Amino acid sequence: MFRRDVSDVLNTSEMRARARRLPKAIFDVIDGGASDEITLRANQSAFQRIWFRPRALADVSTRDLSTTVFGERISMPLMLGPCGFARMARSEAELAIARAAGHAGTVFAVSGSASYPLETIAAAASGPLWYQPPLSSDGKVSEALLGRVEDAGYRVLCVLIDTAVNPKRERDYRNHLSIPLEMSPRLLLTGLTNPMWTKDFLLGRVGHRGAAPRLGGARTAYWNFARTVRNMRPITFKDVAWLRDHWSGKLVVKGVTRGDECSRMLDAGVDGLIVSNHGGRNLDCIRPTIEILPEVVSAVAGRAEVFIDGGIRRGTDVVKALALGASACLIGRPYMFGLAAGGEDGVRRILEIFRNEIDHTMALTGCATVADISPSLVTT
Ligand SMILES: Cc1cc2nc3c(=O)[nH]c(=O)nc-3n(C[C@H](O)[C@H](O)[C@H](O)COP(=O)(O)O)c2cc1C
What is the residue extent of each domain of the chain? Predict the structure, then answer.
């Protein structure tokens, strides 16, 4: 496996620049969003409209970034969200991500379209894992999958509720890229811009074969993602109720975009909600998540944990989201860029950058602990 030093990368946008070593079509799959990418941009720019009101004279000589998620302590209020297709960035894919998350002491939420079997990922991990189950239309198949998830030690089920149909990602159309990704002559040609990537993609660990969950008896793998999606149905409240009946661990829904639906979700037995617009990758023109967060926090009123993802690129963004009521944040693209640029080291570096920036922000805003991050810390 090729290694590249990423220890000098200073921030997430520099890591994104390093990831441009990927063939353009692959970089675009990770970087791009839906349609005009309005939400993709707005997710980030909305954070710039929130300002700090630092507390003066607080004793911040020592800081504790740790927090708890569903009663489990994690080392900082930042987690790695589910990203499918990770093998596109680097063949170590979820194994590298799981190792880096474990090293950082935080959660990795594994996508249902992961490149390795969920048990293999669990074996590589040393930190807490969540799992995003692709739901089969055959209840028996889904039930068997949940059994595997539980046996492998995943603690939280994270159900995606925002992907009823395949999104319109125009960069992928322009690049003639389809999922499942196959080494077409066109991709091979783009791959010439990065022979290391091509070699890794073609010859890298083949443990991804027979990956992920089995649906309808078929062994789904990275390039069988399309089949996984076909087997998935739009998720409804009925599915959430079914999951609640069949999963005894914590249940989180990912893709909450309005407050007035939260009560019904909580009544269905949901323990946590992720305010997410899929990083602007599905429906364009959805509001930026940081603007949705307050209405969800207010609707939930402490009855469940509320998380957020989308456009989080700095430690300041994490602290702003916590001040507005999130329990913790998740990231997608930043760690995928880290994986592309430096493999496990790249993901570790991204987590280290966030840790340092969160610590720095807490010190400068007068917060010694995560509990000190209160609504009065920010203004819009
Ligand atoms: C390459 C890629 C693949 C993704 N795959 C999934 C997925 O399989 N399941 C899911 O719930 N979200 C998926 N997401 C969305 C992320 O979980 C997350 O919602 C989003 O990336 C957050 O925004 P950010 O990239 O600005 O941090 C994916 C995102 C990217 C960039």
Answer: 12-50+67-365
